[in-house]
Amino acid sequence: MGLRQGPRPGPDELLVAGALSLGLHLEPEQVAAFRAYREEIARWSARVNLTALRDPEDIVRTGFLDSLGCLPLIPPEARRALDIGSGAGFPALPLKLLRPDLAFTLVEASRKKASFLHHMVRSLRLAEVRIIQRRAEALAGDPTEQGAYDLALARAVAPPPEQGRLVRPFLGAGGLFLLQVGPGPLDPDALDRLADLGFELARELPLPAALGRPGRRVLAMRRAEGRAGGECFT
Predict the structure, then answer these.
(1) pLDDT tens sequence across 74-92
(2) Which of 9, 8, 56, 54 is nearest to 34 (CA)?
(3) pLDDT tens-digit map of 195-218
(4) Among 16, 89, 115, 149, which is most exposed with the fewest C-beta within 10 angstroms?
(5) pLDDT confidence of residue 232
(6) Are 60 and 19 spatial neighbours (Cβ–Cβ below 8 Å)?
(7) 3-state secondary structure the chain
(8) Mean pLDDT across the stretch 151-177?
(9) Considering just the CA atoms, what is the radius of gyration of the chain in Å?
(10) Phi and psi torsions of 202, nearest 5°
(11) Distance between CA atoms of residues 193 and 197, nearest Å
(12) Residue 231: pLDDT band by 50, 70, 90 thresholds?
């Protein structure tokens, strides 16, 4: 006689358990904010090509928890953060919900996706979140943006070296680029190209298998001191 399986956890329970596996305790109001966020993703995705994530469990695992996997690598002193190609807000908005002290700039070229991001920032009453509807390559030419950030992310917008090229002009010396990668070793050529851009590996964090994406990890790549970042787009 087989073992009886317990009831499948709902999205909120899945979120709370996944966060605990990362060492994060979610308060009830944070769970409620993630629930509202998840429901708005589903509602908007019915009429806008917002994200491929439609199932509540996929949104929690691949959207929220994968984003929160970056949190342990964010230094407590970091203040200004950049997210390139934000789409439905991953990883910036989940991180903002748990690190409200971070001032985020979200760069998204799509008008419809930028509209969704504005909507979510208003709905969740998030302060210090700036949304720029523009291509990162164009924004990099703005002198006020160059070297202005402590932290940068560009989840899934391009292969790792291209992500590094996109974020580098915006990071100050010593700033961190958080690179989210899948199972298996990173291509040595990719690491060489990132090194050529002035990045060095500061720390690597394997994500718990309990998050449902075995082998995922986050690499904290530090922009070396004294390396200029404005000449990448030539």
Answers:
(1) 999 999 999 999 999 999 9
(2) 56
(3) 999 999 999 999 998 888 888 999
(4) 115
(5) 43
(6) no
(7) CCCCCCCCCCHHHHHHHHHHHCCCCCCHHHHHHHHHHHHHHHHHHCCCCCCCCCCHHHHHHHHHHHHHCCHHHCCCCCCEEEEECCCCCCCHHHHHHHCCCCEEEEECCCHHHHHHHHHHHHHCCCCCEEEECCCHHHHCCCCCCCCCEEEEECCCCCCHHHHHHHHHHHEEEEEEEEEEECCCCCCHHHHHHHHHCCEEEEEEEECCHHHCCCCCEEEEEEECCCCCCCCCCC
(8) 94
(9) 18
(10) -95, -35
(11) 6
(12) very low
180 DSSP β-pair partners: 218
pTM for this model (two decimals): 0.91
Amino acid sitting at position 40 = E
| Mean predicted lDDT score pLDDT of the chain | 91
Domains and their CATH numbers in the chain: 11-223 (3.40.50.150)
- Amino acid identity, position 1: M
Q: Residues, the chain, total?
A: 234
Report residue 65 CA to chain centroid gap. 10
* Pairing label, strands 149-153, 171-181: parallel
C-alpha to C-alpha distance for 71 and 100, rounded to whole angstroms = 12
pLDDT for 227 equals: 47
Measure the CA–CA gap between 120 and 143, rounded to whole angstroms: 29
Cβ atoms of 134 and 113 within 8 Å: the answer is no
